[in-house]
Amino acid sequence: MTQHDGLTKYQVRRADGQVEAGADYFVMRLDKGNPHALAAISAYAESVEKELPSLASTLRDKVRRYKRGAVVDLGGEESGSLSGQSESISAG
User: Cα–Cα distance between 50 and 57 in angstroms, integer?
Assistant: First the structure.
């Protein structure tokens, strides 16, 4: 989708190709220095800490690295400064 109402900018699909009718997603791009997205991810990490401590830790590390301006690859390693690379995290 390309509408610019703030809610329909991206199409989200499951990695396994399955379609979930009626699923509702909200996508935030982290690598462009959006302080609101980083705050939201920090709040999510706090919220899932007890149930998913590993995910919470991964998200906190990601936020710290993006706040420093680092690019984080899929393996969690820093690879320099922001350059439009992207990454994803699976929450199970």
Answer: 11
Query: CA 2 → CA 15, 32, 34, 71, 84, distances in Å?
Result: 21, 19, 20, 26, 19
Residue 45, φ and ψ in degrees, nearest 5: -60, -45
pLDDT digits (tens, 9 = 90+) for 17-65: 888 888 888 888 888 878 999 999 999 999 999 999 999 999 999 999 9
Residues paired with residue 72 on neighbouring β-strands, in sequence order: 78
Range list of H helices, 1-92: 35-48, 53-67
Q: CB neighbours of 22 closer than 8 A, spacing ≥ 6?
A: none
- Reduced to 3 states (helix: H, G, I; strand: E, B; else coil), residue 78 is strand
* Contact call for residues 72 and 19 (beta carbons, < 8 A): no
Q: Is the whole model's pTM more than 0.70, yes or no?
A: no
